[in-house]
Model the fold of this input.
Amino acid sequence: MLLPVLDNLIIGAHTFYNSNLLDSFLHTKKLKNEERLNKELATEILHRMGLLMYKDMPAMSLPYGVLKKVELARTLMTKPRLIILDEPAAGLNDAETEKLADIIKLIREDFNCTVFLVEHDMNLVMNVCETVCAINFGKLLAIGSPEEIQANPLVQEAYLGAEESE
Done:
């Protein structure tokens, strides 16, 4: 059986349950309360991420871009302080990448979570990051604000190439 999106998120919080195996067998009030709270949290996260319309749909039946958002939503069920995203825009079209930028900002601001982004899509990086670290072939080129990175001559040379001298 394919799990609906809501249950998929709730599973993300199971490691943080305080109830034990006996509570599960006996369906105790403690377990029921935890399940209710996690369902409420999952519903709130889905709502804030614009995914509420998918809550009863099987996760595996959703488009790739929506699945990526569901994965982030499930991660938020663990109440993380840091999320590392490695190439999250890979395979996304421009519209999906714009929505991803909004989601990253929402995670950072509304969920008080630091997002460590490893990404080659410079439009996404410059749009969502407060601090950028530019690396070229494993060598640190510069760290700074998006504006500082864009103006840095070492970064410009590495990413745009050196100007030909006449």
